[in-house]
Amino acid sequence: GAVVSQHPSRVICKSGTSVKIECRSLDFQATTMFWYRQFPKQSLMLMATSNEGSKATYEQGVEKDKFLINHASLTLSTLTVTSAHPEDSSFYICSASDSGYSNQPQHFGDGTRLSIL
Amino acid sequence: ILNVEQSPQSLHVQEGDSTNFTCSFPSSNFYALHWYRWETAKSPEALFVMTLNGDEKKKGRISATLNTKEGYSYLYIKGSQPEDSATYLCAFNTNSGGSNYKLTFGKGTLLTVNP
Question: First-to-last CA distance in chain B?
């Protein structure tokens, strides 16, 4: 149980392109979804937290106009990297929680490797 | 800025060896400590969520302890097997308010078990 599907797994595109990443909870309702970014040899860094039907909460230093998050249903959240540039190249991974409470684990997708040329 | 430190960064053990590694976190404002196992090309898998000082949890050959007063958690693997090879992440829970929570992750410990 608690499967999260993330798509696509790999994206290579030109600078200026917008890229959409989907995160779906397949067998549970995700009250809260989280988006992380990981640069080489660094830890997973939280970018934003989203709740179904409301605006995402972004972490300090993360541009909300650059990284658009939509959590339209209890099973789907999307992250759109708008007008991506080479410095946006990174590993992006989502997770989901069915409760949003600290004593419950997060369930992760497989991640998306984004490369901007 | 909250720091979660994991040590060692990596280690190699022989099949059958027992091993352990450490996660250090701020001892103030503790909510929960999470452990995840992340195998290459897969998604991170939740191992334990620990909330109480002195807590000890076990899952097969893997166990974890928690000391919230001094701010550390140990993960133990007994009789390591090649399939235990993975990066082990710990994450400290900081409550950003309301019922949502956010995790601050360490960089992980990369375990390689040689057959």
Answer: 40
For B52, the closest chain A residue by CA position comes to: A103
- Nearest chain A residue to B50 by CA: give it: A103
Q: Which of A98, A107, A80, A84 is nearest to A8 (CA)?
A: A80
Chain B contact residues (CB < 8 Å to A) = 4, 31-32, 34, 36, 41-46, 49, 51, 89, 91, 93, 95-96, 99-108
Q: What is the distance between the alpha carbons of residues B40 and A54, in angstroms, rounded to a whole number?
A: 34
CA distances from B49 to A102, A105, B13, B82 (A): 9, 6, 26, 24
Q: What is the 3-state secondary structure (H, E, C) of A58-86?
A: ECCCCCCCCEEEEEEECCEEEEEECCCCH
pLDDT (tens place) for every residue of chain A, 117 residues total:
789 999 999 999 999 999 999 999 999 998 889 999 999 999 999 999 988 888 899 999 999 999 999 988 999 999 999 999 999 999 999 999 987 677 889 999 999 999 999
